From TrEMBL:
Organism of derivation: Macleaya cordata (Five-seeded plume-poppy)
GO cellular component, one term: membrane
E.C. designation(s): 7.2.2.8
Protein name, entry field: P-type Cu(+) transporter
Family annotation (PANTHER family): P-TYPE CATION-TRANSPORTING ATPASE
SUPFAM superfamilies: Calcium ATPase, transduction domain A, Calcium ATPase, transmembrane domain M, HAD-like, HMA, heavy metal-associated domain
Length: 985
């Protein structure tokens, strides 16, 4: 048993590549060791890539050994080890190291390595994001989506009505982003490119001072002359230059310098746009609707007063009733003049929107508004013209109906875009984490600071050295080249305690420096940064449609045509009933005839029906839900994950790094003899083998035991021998030291005392690993090592059980340790010694039994199970492969967030159901009332302008209902954990 326990890292298949309990999501590449700043400047752009087949790796501890061995070589930029596929990919600088040296290093660790000659297959798919202006309802988004899906080379297209954006996965060899934009524009909407997969490093610059075409050509030539520039695009109307570039060779400051030096100082360049693209667009849209609404009021209020108020004021009424030509009055002429600009200038957007929709053989909200307002306006025009040409015709106009209808709809759209803007506040808050400015340092050849300069943080280039003072934010991902401090990373990783940073440690952009001054060399800038990756993840999540949205899509397909039919039938029924005396003439108001009454009912039906509310019910709730999740440290990758999570009734937990901390620590020591320098001898023996997790735990404990964690020099260990799976031995201070399992001692003919046997038995019962230590052939002590439970693990399992969620543990560890941990946390069902594929099979087995399964894991070998599960949840401190495979990332690495994710999902879908009930109920109730269902019994009829206001209010109410999710609070049960002293972030 001890033999199995000793080989802790290689038997357990769920251990992470990084055993540190501190979250490191998203990962950042290490800077190449052995490369100084001066040397690095000589080898920019000379990096190479090599792919090796590595056989013999059995777990992530093996992968960690290979990775760390490679990274010790000079000139290594990055090394990624894939245990599942037995492959290792290395980015390196050939000036310092070559493929053969890397291969030999892998074999020195104990694995067989072969260089794969063919180049790593590049990803053929790219992602393009396009902003689409002019969409009003689900019918519009469906039209655009269908057009994009129909293009050859497009794998997937998602169009989000709430964000007014499209995300397209396409093959750039078959279709270009310009063709994608053209396809959108052909559907009748305006397309604005946000980003393409090929411009991860792309800078947009606005240049002032350009007066001639030759200036454009000269600037373009200057930009092309820079090393690393891959493409230059010019927009002459905006004086905008878009530059795609290689960030390891050049950057935005170089572009600005090149532009400004071209025109002898007359050109001035700055980043374009000056604000965030989405925010600028949203503000512009809000401004446009607000402006349109105010202008419509200028004309509509006089129309309303002349038709509804002044008619009851004797003196003014007399003036308005004055005849102009035949029966045409001053009041009618005034209303016609005032209503016309509202109908055709301010309301032009509804004409263009309906034209686009009808051209694409679909019908949207604009069609209903255009039909309703046109019916009222042109009937009024008919009445006015007939009055002007007839000496005895006395009719009633509906100019107030058309103008008030447009005004109220514009007010509704203004309030709607205002509310929709608040649904993406989470992304804005994330983006605000990045500081606006940074202090750029200029260093001399010896690394001394010779100049400091404050720059816009968007102008930071790779390999810049930045100064970070106490209390300021780190401006870019990078590594510390000078100084030491503590950095608060909670806003990115969820780690509550400030993390110590010193020379060589990595830092993440957007985190807060607390006490010391740091000099940081930038490694990932702009869209490559960790913060940008998280923002993109949240944006993609908000783009993704939840399956429940298909319900709204199906309804919206037939909604508008059905409403038009109902509206026509309503008008016809009331008109025929009036024509053939189907109701008393007393029902007809004195100011109109039966045709006009029927027309009002028909228009009311047409404008009260609201397809927008249905279309916004799901995406707005998903947007707010995923945003709230991000602020709580729960990254939800889209509507599918959000919808599946609320149905989860079974959770499969990995053990190491999930239920436990994932970092072995020494918990107790039993000395059989008095040895003053016991840990000195043991640590000196194990330090050679310190890549092994158990050896690392012993060495770390020995440092603390001696009280000098930073720079302790251990005695020399000679004749070191590592016996795989059993232990190590060496000569230290002329003493033969052996550290290992019972089998190592027995194979070396070293007797094990009864006290040691008893202590080993106790450690096994407590899920601990017992390590025997012998000096000169005599067992002198036993070290107990354990991977402790995470704080609150027992309470989380208890709460999940109370929620009627079945909890299961599936682990690659031995059964004894697994059962002990399971008993401690309260899990009854345990599957131990499971390989990665067996974990996935167990998940499928549970699904086949009718359960909705969530998998919570952190290791490379959890990836198949995370993918197989209905909802995969990756612990944020886990490996990047696990995070990539998961549907939900728990960035804080707290088990409590499993409950938060499920509860947030339930609250979000409760809100979606409420939205649907409101949107459908509104239409089912509103349409009959507008059609006059209450008129025969109560005399109540809904004027068209009131119906229009109600339609506008329905969309706003749905968005506001979704916005209530912003006030989401975690279950009170989790707050009680905090009260009881368990750390809950």
């Amino acid at each position: 048993m001890a033999s199995k326990l000793l080989d802790f890292a290689c038997i357990r298949s769920e251990s992470s590549r990084d055993l540190s309990a501190r979250p490191h999501y998203p990962s950042m590449p290490k800077y190449p060791k052995g490369v100084s700043i001066e040397e690095e400047s000589l080898i920019k752009g000379s990096e190479s890539k090599a792919l090796f087949s590595v056989t013999g790796m059995t777990c992530s501890a093996c992968a960690g050994s290979v990775e760390k061995a490679i990274k010790r070589l000079p000139g290594i930029k990055e090394a990624v080890v894939d245990v599942l596929n037995n492959r290792t990919q290395v980015l390196f600088y050939p000036n310092f190291v070559n493929e053969e040296a890397i291969r030999e290093t892998i074999e020195d660790v104990g694995f067989e390595a072969t260089l794969i000659e063919e180049e790593v297959t590049e990803r053929t798919l790219q992602i393009c994001r396009i902003r689409i202006k002019g969409m009003t309802c689900t019918s519009c988004s469906r039209t655009v989506e269908t057009a994009l899906q129909g293009l050859r080379g497009v794998q997937k297209a998602q169009v989000a009505l709430a964000t007014e954006e499209a995300e397209i996965q396409y093959e750039p060899k078959i279709v270009t982003h310009n063709q994608l934009m053209k396809a959108v524009e052909e559907t009748g909407f305006e397309a604005i490119l946000i980003s393409t997969g090929e411009d991860m490093s792309k800078m947009h610059l606005k240049v002032d001072g350009i007066q001639t075409q030759s200036s454009f050509r000269n600037i373009e030539k200057s930009l092309w002359s820079l090393s690393g520039v891959e493409n230059v695009e010019i927009d002459p109307t905006l004086h905008k230059f878009s530059v795609a570039y290689k960030p390891d060779q050049t950057g935005p400051r170089n572009f600005i310098q090149a532009i400004e030096s071209t025109g002898s100082g007359r050109f001035k360049a700055r980043i374009f746009p000056e604000g965030g693209g989405r925010e600028v667009h949203k503000k512009e849209e809000i401004k446009q609707y607000y402006k349109s609404f105010l202008w419509s009021l200028v004309f509509t209020i006089p129309v309303f007063l002349t038709s509804m108020v002044f008619m009851y004021i004797p003196g003014i009424k007399h003036g308005l009733d004055t005849k102009v030509v035949n029966m045409l009055t001053v009041g009618e002429l005034l209303r016609w003049i005032l209503a016309t600009p509202v109908q055709f200038i301010i309301g032009r957007r509804f004409y263009t929107g309906s034209y686009k929709a009808l051209r694409n053989k679909s019908a949207n909200m604009d069609v209903l508004i255009a039909l309703g307002t046109n019916a009222a306006y042109f009937f009024s025009v008919y009445s006015v013209i007939r009055a002007a040409t007839s000496p005895n015709f006395k009719g009633t106009d509906f100019f107030e109906t058309s103008s008030m209808l447009i005004s109220f709809i514009l007010l509704g759209k203004y309030l709607e875009v205002l509310a929709k803007g608040k649904t993406s506040e989470a992304i804005a808050k994330l983006m605000d984490l990045a500081p606006e400015t940074a202090t750029l340092l200029t260093l001399d050849s010896e690394g001394n600071v010779i100049n400091e300069q404050e720059i816009d943080s968007r102008l930071i280039q790779r390999n810049d050295v930045l100064k970070v003072i106490p209390g300021s934010k780190v401006a870019s991902d990078g590594f510390v080249v000078w100084g030491q401090s503590h950095v608060n990373e909670s806003m990115i990783t969820g780690e509550s305690r400030p993390v110590a940073k010193r020379k060589g440690d990595t830092v993440i952009g957007g985190t807060l420096n607390e006490n010391g001054v740091l000099h940081v060399q930038a490694t990932r800038v702009g869209s490559e940064s960790s913060l940008s990756q998280i923002v993109r993840l949240v944006e993609s999540a908000q783009m993704a449609k939840a399956p429940v949205q298909k319900f709204a899509d199906r309804i919206s397909k037939y909604f508008v045509p059905l409403v038009i039919i109902i509206s026509f039938v309503t008008w016809l029924a009331w008109f025929l009933a009036g024509k053939f005396n189907g109701y008393p003439t007393s029902w007809i108001p004195s100011s109109m005839d039966s045709f006009q009454l029927a027309l009002q009912f028909g228009i009311s039906v047409m404008v009260i029906a609201c397809p927008c509310a249905l279309g916004l019910a799901t995406p707005t709730a998903v947007m707010v839900g995923t945003g709230v999740g991000a602020s709580q440290g729960v990254l939800i990758k889209g509507g599918q994950a959000l919808e599946s999570a609320h149905n989860v009734n079974c959770i499969v937990f990995d053990k190491t790094g999930t239920l436990t901390i994932g970092k072995p620590v020494v918990v107790s020591t039993k000395l059989l003899q008095r040895i003053p320098d016991f840990y000195e001898l043991v640590a000196a023996t194990e330090v050679v083998n310190s890549e092994h997790p158990l050896a690392k735990a012993i060495v770390e404990y020995a440092k603390k035991f001696r009280g000098d964690e930073d720079n302790h020099v251990w005695p020399e260990a000679r004749e070191f021998i590592s016996i795989t799976g059993h232990g190590v031995k060496a000569i230290v201070k002329d003493k033969e030291i052996m550290v290992g399992s019972k089998s190592l001692m027995r194979n070396s003919n070293i007797p094990i005392p009864a006290d040691a046997e008893d202590f080993l038995k106790e450690t096994e019962e407590m899920a601990q690993t017992g390590i025997l230590v012998s000096i000169n052939g005599q067992v002198v002590g036993v070290i107990a090592i354990s991977d402790p439970l995470k704080p609150g693990a027992q309470d989380v399992i208890s709460i999940l059980k109370a929620m009627n969620i079945k909890c299961i543990m599936v682990t690659g560890d031995n059964r004894g340790t697994a059962m002990s941990i399971a008993n401690e946390v309260g899990i009854e069902t345990v599957v131990a010694e499971a390989k990665p594929d067996q974990k996935a099979e167990k998940v499928k087995e549970l699904q086949n039994s009718g359960l909705t399964v969530a998998m919570v894991g952190d290791g490379i070998n959890d990836s198949p199970a995370l993918v197989a599960a209905d909802v995969g949840m990756a612990i944020g401190a886990g490996t990047d492969i696990a995070i990539e495979a998961a549907d939900i990332v728990l960035m804080k690495s707290n088990l409590e967030d499993v409950i938060t994710a499920i509860d947030l999902s339930k609250k979000t879908f409760s809100r979606i159901r409420m939205n649907y009930i409101w949107a459908l109920g509104y239409n089912l109730l509103g349409i009959p009332i507008a059609a006059g269902a209450l008129f025969p019994s109560t005399g109540f009829r809904l004027p068209p302008w009131v119906a229009g206001a109600a339609m506008a209010a329905s969309s706003v109410s749905v968005v506001c209902c979704s916005l209530l999710l912003k006030y989401y609070k975690r279950p009170k049960k989790l707050e009680t954990l905090e009260i009881r002293g368990i750390q809950v972030e």
